[in-house]
Amino acid sequence: MSTPPATEATADVAPCCVLGETIDDGLAHDLAKVFKALGDPTRVKLMSLIAGSSDGEMCVCDLTEPVGLSQPTVSHHMKLLVEAGLVAREQRGRWAYYRPTIDTLAAAAKALNA
Amino acid sequence: MSTPPATEATADVAPCCVLGETIDDGLAHDLAKVFKALGDPTRVKLMSLIAGSSDGEMCVCDLTEPVGLSQPTVSHHMKLLVEAGLVAREQRGRWAYYRPTIDTLAAAAKALNA
User: Fold this and answer.
1) I need a surface site. Which of A91, A101, B61, B103 has the fewest CB within 10 A?
2) What are the domain boundaries of chain B?
């Protein structure tokens, strides 16, 4: 996902909120998807690891031990983070590497005036 | 909830992330609770309405129409937002009033480097 849903939609939110109107269904769905992806302690841990990585990315092979889960389980969680636009995935040889997508979460939070 | 879990825990996160370690179970649980509460389009809309209210608060009686749901259903959604520390509830006579809890969402996002 090259353009995170929350990022492109953020500009539409502030004016409607100021008027006290509800945001539209499509934007509400996109924002909920971002937050829902982080509504799980394991995915919070994975996101924290990737967002805090000194290399700017992490191999799936280095994500399994810190969360104590198998690689297929970690890959499932990572798929949800990728689909929400929170991380980007790159296959390099045998391993998948993940890096944080800048601004997706920040833009989603700002869309709710946070 | 007078002290949002994400706010008090934020200071613990940055150092651990820099080292590439996982955040602890308790913090991961607290953060996931905040995000999970917003992992639903209706609650995103309700949060947007309250966060964008010109009065700084909204009566439950004014939240039903914008989301097209009954008051019991809206109250159920609001209960989850209150439990996550995202809004504060005050009963005033017949109606409940909700105001956004400053910084809960912003702190949760920052805890993940967003």
Assistant:
1) A91
2) 5-111
- Cβ–Cβ of B45/A28 closer than 8 Å? yes
What pLDDT, in 10s, does the model give residues B19-58? 455 689 999 999 999 999 999 999 999 999 999 998 999 9
Among the partner residues A22, A38, A43, nearest to B66 by beta-carbon distance = A22
Q: In terms of DSSP bridges, do strands A95-100 and B58-59 run parallel, antiparallel, or are they unpaired? A: unpaired
Chain A residues with beta carbon closer than 8 angstroms to that of B44: 23, 28, 31-32, 35, 112
- Chains A–B, number of C-beta pairs less than 8 Å apart: 148
- Predicted ipTM of the assembly: 0.81
Q: How many other C-beta atoms are found inside a 10 Å radius of the C-beta of residue A68? A: 11
Distance separating the N- and C-terminal Cα atoms of chain B: 24
Residues 55-74, chain A, touching B (beta carbon < 8 A): 66-67
What strands lie across the sheet with A95-100, from one edge to the other? A58-59, A95-100, A87-92
Q: Do A43 and B25 touch (CB under 8 A)?
A: no
Q: Write out the DSSP string of A14-69.
A: HHHHHTTPPPPHHHHHHHHHHHHHTSSHHHHHHHHHHHT-TTS-EEGGGTHHHHT-
